[in-house]
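Predict the assembly for these two chains.
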Amino acid sequence: MIEIERKFLVTSDAFKKEATSKTFIIQGFLNTHPERTVRVRAVGKKGILTVKGKSSEDGTTRFEWETEIPLEEAKKLLQLCEKGIIEKYRHEVSFAKNLFEIDEFLGDNAGLVLAEIELNEVNQTFKKPSWLGEEVTGDIKYYNSQISKNPFKNW
Amino acid sequence: MIEIERKFLVTSDAFKKEATSKTFIIQGFLNTHPERTVRVRAVGKKGILTVKGKSSEDGTTRFEWETEIPLEEAKKLLQLCEKGIIEKYRHEVSFAKNLFEIDEFLGDNAGLVLAEIELNEVNQTFKKPSWLGEEVTGDIKYYNSQISKNPFKNW
């Protein structure tokens, strides 16, 4: 499928009061090539393998394919991944009928908080919550595949 | 799991008379890094995604993880793969209670025929059929991930 996403910095912790879920995620990459990233995730009790294609020029659309795998298998694959395993909390917040996924990074990326909204159409408008800051859609520095290689503490 | 395999050149077509199956395989790689290859296959009506780790020094053992996926999804992932999609026939031959998998490559690799035998132990002995030639276990040139980048016609 093709995914349409926009990504923003988060300017305060205010989103935490509105969050409906908080999930711990460990993730690594078997491949961080911009044309075909292969991601392994341990998300709560699930394992997830995701392949993403190249982003469109404006960074909003991208081929994405995902399959669930047993958690134990995901953990073995995480051991094979490139250096730079990412740990983060994923918070979900509903705001004006839209779902925001907010990643609060840990470890070498502590202090970095990013929000993503998935849209049905590229030009779809949506209401912005007060804690939503600057848009960073398409800025490669904020891709998880790049964060894993160049963590926030080095920025 | 850890896989123990040995690989050989095939010196004649004689194996074809003994083959119990012949399957057309299209395969590509999302990643050809020797420490973590990610392979996509369309095998008959199935899709298969495989992750392999680094080989042991003698080339016989290697971490391998595999999952079946829908054929249509495999075909989409093949479009994302690195250049050098491989097409081949996989023949299966039982000989003296061992299974040999014989790859007859097509296209840019026509003329290359390789046999693999999977073993339970590194030092396990087995009977060699007459058509089995030189051993090439651990020779990186014969890895499918390398063949896809440097096809047989260029050797």
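Chain A has a mean pLDDT of 94. Residues 71-80 of chain A form the longest helix (10 residues).
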